[in-house]
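Fill-in record for Retinol dehydrogenase 14-like.
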Amino acid sequence: MYLLYTIFTSLAFFFVFKRMKRRRYCTDLTRLDGKTVLITGGNSGIGKETAIALAMRGARVVIACRDPDKAAKAVRDIKFKSHSLNVSHMELDLANLRSVREFCKNFLQTEKRLDILINNAGMPSVLDWTDDGFSMCFGVNHLGHFLLTNLLLPRLRECAPSRVLTLTCSSYKYQKLDFQDLNYNLLPFFTYCRSKLANVYFSQELARVTEGKGVTTYAVHPGFVQSGWTCHFSFLFRILMQVVMWMFFVPCEMGAQTVVYCAVSDEAAKHSGGYFVDCRPATLRPFARDSGVAKKLWEASERLVKLA
């Protein structure tokens, strides 16, 4: 009897876990023939699955990442899975603002179009520093993408209607910004939360800056995804998280669905500056909708990255 009870309880928990992992799929079939998509961190995880999905829709896909060997391998895999040869890679280190500037210069010289920019790359809650002295989370997740987007914004306007997607996380709700110390390095997890809140504010202010200029922008929470972020941590932590991710997190292909939706959907285009979860607009906490804070962060970011 005890054995039957144990089996029944285990199956019940397994069923609940599976229900928790169910997510919506993007059902919009819009093609992207003739359009160019740039995806940061497109060599793995959600970025790679997004690259495959958009290449299958006919887009020219450029993935940008730090390691050229990993990028080249990813490009071969994306081409194979998408049945598209129109995929390439460029080197970009978001932890180095000089690299961001060099990347944008090269991209603008070699690519005549930019229709969709997907700010996907990100760092988990690690206590480390960028080459410019910022915390790795804030420097990569926000400042690197802030500078990248601003330097590529003229091309996005030229190719309007165009879109900017910035991946964030629901953990934004656990912190508020401290303009006395945006790096906030005492507790790495809270540093990560602040960087994700910065992504939300950035998307909102970008929508205001580009209003009426043909560029729409979205903050996208892909859900909790079985990606490779644990590679930055110890072996024991990785083993533990593999079990947790298998039970609670969704595969990368499913995590990419909301990203794909915001990249192609006409319905999403009606909500520029919005926050999207599970292929639909979602409501932010009131403090995360403060336009004054969003503008203040934009101005502070301009100073930090020395954007004239």
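KEY FINDING: The longest strand covers residues 215-221.
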